[in-house]
Amino acid sequence: MVIQDTLFVLWLMVAGPLWAVLGLFVLPNVNRGRKNEDLIPDTTLKIAGVIGGFALGPVGLGLFYFEPLLIRRTTLTIGVVLTVFVSSQVMVRVVDPHFPSAIWLFLAGPLWAALAAYFIPRHYRDEEADDQNVLTAAALGGFAIGPLIFGLMWKTTPKINRDWMIILGSLGAWQIYLLFAIQNPTNPCVQAPFSVTYLTQQTANGVVIGCIYSLMAVGLTLIYSVQGIVSFAHGQLYMVGGYFSFYFLLHAGNLLSELTGTEVQVNPIWGIPVAAVIVFLMGAIFERIFLKPMHDGLIERISEYAILITFGFGFVIEYTTLAVAGPFPQRTDRFIEIRRFTLERAQITDDFAFGPINIIGDRAFAMVVGIILIFALLYFLQRTWTGRALRATSQDRQAAAVTGINPTNMNTLSFGMGSMLAAMSGAALIPIFAWVPWVGAEMVGRSYVIVVLGGLGSVPGALVGGIVVGIVEALGAGCHPDPSRGAAYKEAFALVIFALVLLLKPTGLFGREQH
Amino acid sequence: MVYLRQIESRIDQGIGRRRLGYIVLGLIILFFLWFPNDTSQSNYAKTVFISGFFYAIMSSSWALLAGIAGQFSFGHMAFMGIGAYVAGLIARDGIMFATLGIAITPESFSAIGSIIIGTLVAGLVGLVIGWLLLRLRAAYLALFTIAFSELFRIMMLTEYDYTGGSNGLSLRPLLQIADVDTARQVEYYLMFALLIVCLLVMHWVANSPIGLFLRAMREDEDAASALGVNVVRYKILIFVFTSMIVGLAGAIFYSDVGSERIIPEQLEVLQMSLIIAYAVIGGMESLIGAAAGAFISRYMLEAMREVVISLPFGLTTADGGDAFVWETGAWRFALFGVVMVFTLRYMRNGLLYPFITWFSGRDLAMKETVSKRDGDGDDIVEPMGADDE
Description:
The structure holds two protein chains of two kinds. In chain A, 72% of the residues lie in helices and 3% in strands. Chain A has helices at residues 5-26, 42-56, 58-66, 71-94, 102-127, 134-145, 148-154, 162-183, 192-227, 234-260, 271-295, 302-325, 361-383, 385-395, 397-402, 407-429, 439-454, 459-479, 483-488, 490-504, and strands at residues 2-3, 340-343, 346-349, 352-354, 357-360. Chain B is 68% helix and 5% strand. Chain B has helices spanning 2-13, 17-34, 43-68, 76-93, 111-133, 138-158, 160-163, 180-207, 209-219, 221-226, 231-255, 269-282, 287-303, 331-346, 353-360, 362-374, 385-388; strands at 95-97, 102-104, 169-170, 261-262, 306-310, 323-327. Mean pLDDT of chain B is 82; it is low at 377-389.
């Protein structure tokens, strides 16, 4: 399917403003049903509606509507990203490619970061200022603006909020980009005429796959927030979800073909609910047998037990699948006939063109499925009694039990639902990736990065984290000087994020403070 | 049962359980020392035993880290790989720091030298990871090491110019022996000696004051910290220590006679999960239990490759054979996993725990204490009962 460039321009002109206007009217409804002290100023909501609608369309509006906490940060991020992006494009064109101080930049960043991370938090403590997040900000700032960070933070010891982080972080990212551009000027990511398109293409790929990553990570975070344990069977549940979908489609297709006498192909979308139901039951039964004793006080040192027992569960699933399905790669049919969606090349000025951008049809479809499921989950958590009970249990077990919520059932529900989400993302991705019994191992490492980045136990964190990890992987793989290595090291880029988060802010972006 | 009780009481009055335990242990060691001299055994059996010793080292060191110190790492195989790969690369390529003008040729390293460097590098990586993660909650270490070992595997697979990719890397042989039978024999004794040495060192660490600190931290970190134990430092110490042990084991195992190659497949999470399963089945809180668990499980898995059930009374199967033959394939691992999960749930200290406690006489002391507390002498308390409380 090809969208003509006139259509594309039309879309830009109409859809953005259209969604913006819609946002202007819809978003103030967030305040409905809120208590007085929770009210968000109408102006803020209106601005967020306009910007979110314009930049992200329906996705932005939905996000803001269900998670008003995200409004401030997201609008800020969009603004900073656009600024950094445009300015870096300008810089790459202006700076001489053989800038000799590239090595200096490279060495100096970490150096100043280490210095700032060592001295500034100590200074804050001496001044008895609020030193929350100071370490992170100092390290980021040292990396991004070098010695200037001392000037900024030494004299007045300002309170560090998220805006600081976003700005400093973006500056750091910009610097890496610059360094990259200088060192490797022939790379498609920085080469002047193509870079915008290429980067947008990579980013789009990242966002598309990131939505599915999010779906999986949300499951992990849901289990953590209610039960306080990390499920080490998550990757295997993801894998087995894909296989359930595969076998269901195979048998359903054969059965229907026999009944009707013609060749019938079942659309893989039907595999998603089937895998969801089966894996939900698997997770719930496992929880009842092996995790419930943990909460009943029958087991000592529960955190260790939880790691091992979920790991053992994954072990059994993986080898059973290997025994049943064999080590051969499997794949189902495609979701949709359309091979790829294309935004045609748009000539904006004489020497600047944008596009074409391709998104593989099935991936786009999987993304839509992922987004719908995530919003359904958010709706469930925010607006239904059971969902609220789940959140209440995650906040305070005893208090929830007093109000008549059965924590045991909530545990089972959370583990079942978390497993189900993993299985659903598996079933959504089996038409795209070749499926072998050990796909889970690769995927699960990624979802650990996502949940730690977003903050263990935070659903919006998992959402944002998934998309960030998707983008970083796509950009890392796409911009690596050696393409085959870049593809192989996809996960390494996510792991770098992991190490940085642990080093700078172990609670993650949205996590509760560690006790 | 009555006879068993009688024998038990005789032993308690006579030689004592602990001494009997030492005798049994000595007999087992004697058996292992004698085994390669049995000419009826094939080289295959020796190979199974050698890999059994290797996995016994891996599992018991994991038991020290996870069972005794309470730190869950999934990176054991990765550290083993670091030891082996670094030793192999150094012995082949030497060390080059082009910018600093340092170049050491591979010839200047002996096989032992490269193994030592491999071990040290494994320890160094362990130090960095430990410093980064051991300040945080237990789950973070598990999360990070699982991702790290996957990354390490991919790195070894991708950088095939250096590491040989999926073909693997062969290390410089530690011993040059042409005759295959003698080579196997020497290899066998080498690995067995390594296992004994590692077990002794780890046993010493586990029972030293450091081991006591670690146990205290495992039970209650805040309390231990309040009593003046530098929690993070000891955690890092034990993490580095176990990393070095597995690095050493890996470097020696893969360089013994040069017939084995270290391949990236060996570093998969699945392999790691096998080690964990061995340790859990054998008993996570006892080094010897974990080692024995690994050896026995390894042997069982090897023996279960093909299950043959002979039919009695001259019955035959449908196709005329007199036995069912079942190629177990991955099923044996699935079954093994089921055993692991149920062990975890119902026998937390492993399947070998009853034997170990019986020989150590610990349950005797426990019974005595409990019966004193309850005010009567009847042995109503089962040895396993104390486990669940």
